[in-house]
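Minutes, project check-in
Item: structure for the 116-residue chain
Input as provided by the requester:
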Amino acid sequence: MILAIKIDVMKIVRERLFQGAKGAKYLDAVVFIDNEKGQFGDNGMIVQDVSKEEKANGIKGEILGNCRIIRGEVAGNQGQQGYGQGVANQMRPPMQQQTPVNRGASRAADDDMPDF
């Protein structure tokens, strides 16, 4: 399956960004996909991921944008999987240490993220 995605970068909660072992900066997100198109022609939404503890306490991630299926379709049984149990989540290698990236003036001079 191939998806086209649109993300409103102004909605990214920068405190949830983290730095990998080699210095790359990451954003964990979850994509919810449906074969049927929504009101605006999209097939799903993209949400910034939250920790297991936050999920257990009912905290939901910020909706960052939407997606559209360009090629392929969702397999019949994938929609029945629980939140965060998709194939992509199972295949993702574990990250080293998650170091939050600070928002605002305290950012490092080498921070190449766009100013929000």
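Outcome recorded: The longest strand covers residues 63-71.
No further action items on this chain.
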